[in-house]
Design a protein that fits this description.
Layout: H1 17-26, E1 32-33, H2 45-56, H3 69-83, E2 93-96, H4 99-110, E3 116-121, H5 126-133, E4 137-142, E5 144-146, E6 149-151, H6 154-160, E7 165-171, H7 183-196, E8 199-203, E9 229-234, E10 247-251, H8 253-266, H9 272-284, H10 286-308, E11 313-314, E12 323-324, E13 327-328, H11 334-345, E14 347-348, E15 350-351, E16 363-366, H12 371-387
Parallel strand pairs: 1-14, 3-4, 3-7, 7-8, 8-9
Antiparallel strand pairs: 2-10, 5-6, 9-10, 11-13, 12-16, 15-16
Length: 388
């Protein structure tokens, strides 16, 4: 029988090294799991109750492709409250079935086969993979590591430009670094994209998990509504809704309109009752967000102090998100390191190589787990490093 092959372009989309490690961890008992990016906190009860109420009220049918108008209005109100930014909920905000889908649909609107995208790394690998899925070519430019801090290599950005460059992607607060693009960094990125006529895509999913205020600075504070700027967002991290798959995007009106059209051919829209639950989260979730961030700050301090005292470890203190990205002296194969740690000590961390250029030689630790997991995990990691 003749074998019919898959699309050859799929060879450019590589498996997730995080999932590869996780699959091994799933097959083992007693593992202290720090490899995935989610907290151990359940979705707050008032959000769950809102979904049940919505179903009972009949929110089980189709909605607009762009999402419920009431949810888009609630998102616009939240931007006005947190960032003093006025958005048009009808033309500039689109609800999506997760932050991942927001990335997917926006990148598809910008990248054609053969186009190039610059991605600041180390970064959550999905943006790079989605560029490849669209037939584009990602150019990963690592952040500069100097004096236990990260910074943007603006000379590297200029050098990465080509006539095919269409897009620049960054995340702030960063997964996996916890690094923050401060307003001065954001302005330089915006100026770079304006000068070179590029789209600028900011992943701001972790903006509420910020340790120097109630919200991290958004690029939307600096750009005009006519700038070629896209922000992707999610309910997953701020409201402990990872399994609900609800997100949104903010963009210039022409791109927002096109993503709305594409939604019809991808997911139609996010689930109706979940959208209503998200609306409730935005309107009534501030106390829960603040409590979670306080809890995470304590866990960050514990893990950061523990890592700083370990041999051959260099680590930057996170400014946001809930990750640490310790760099490990003399480690040149972070996947092998993570796999050995898992098999010998039953502690699972994400290998730095999974996060693109600049990630090798490090691992990502999610400190959103309970202290009953973090405390023994840090002790086992210390013992593993001391035995090498």
């Amino acid at each position: 029988m003749q074998k019919i092959s898959l699309a050859p372009s799929l060879s450019q989309v590589f498996p997730s090294r995080i999932r590869e490690l996780a699959d091994v961890a799933f097959s083992m008992d007693g593992v202290l799991r720090l490899h995935f990016g989610e907290s151990n906190l359940s979705t707050p009860g008032f959000i769950k109750e809102a979904a049940v109420r919505a179903m009972n009220k009949g929110y089980t049918f189709y909605t607009e492709n762009a999402g419920l108008p009431s949810l888009r209005e609630a998102i616009a109100e939240k931007y006005a409250e947190l960032h003093q930014v006025n958005l048009n909920p009808q033309t500039e905000i689109v609800v999506t079935a997760s932050g991942v889908q927001a990335l997917n649909v926006t990148i598809r609107c910008v990248i054609d086969p053969g186009d190039e995208a610059i991605v600041l790394t180390p970064n959550w690998p999905n943006a790079t993979a989605i560029v490849s899925l669209c037939g584009g070519n990602p150019r990963e430019i690592p952040l500069v590591w100097e004096d236990r801090h990260y910074g943007i290599d603006f000379n590297g950005l200029e050098a990465a430009l080509s006539p095919k460059t269409r897009l620049l992607v960054y995340a702030s607060p960063s997964n996996p670094l916890g690094w923050l693009a401060k307003p001065a960094d954001q302005y330089r990125l915006l100026d770079f994209c304006r000068r070179h006529r590029l789209w600028l895509l900011a992943d701001e999913v972790y903006e509420r998990i910020y340790y120097s205020g109630s919200v991290a600075p958004s690029i939307l504070r600096l750009c005009t509504r006519d700038d070629a700027v896209i922000v992707v967002q999610s309910f997953s991290k701020s409201y402990c809704m990872t399994g609900w798959r609800l997100g949104w995007l903010v963009a210039r009106a022409d791109l927002a309109q096109k993503t709305t059209q594409l939604n019809e051919f991808i997911v139609s829209h996010a689930p109706s009752m979940v959208q209503r639950a998200g609306e409730t989260a935005l309107k009534h979730g501030e106390d829960d967000v603040h409590s979670m961030v306080t809890l995470l700050q304590d866990r960050k301090r514990f893990c950061f102090d523990a890592l700083r005292s370990m041999p051959s470890v260099a680590v930057a203190e996170p400014e946001g998100a809930f990750y640490l990205f310790p760099r490990l002296e003399e480690v040149t194969d972070s996947y092998s390191f993570a796999l050995s740690l898992l098999k010998e000590k039953k502690v699972s961390v994400a290998p730095g190589v999974a996060f693109g250029n600049g990630g090798e030689g490090a691992v990502r630790i999610c400190y959103a787990a309970d202290m009953s997991i973090l405390e023994p995990a840090m002790e086992r990691l210390r013992a593993f490093l001391e035995s090498r």
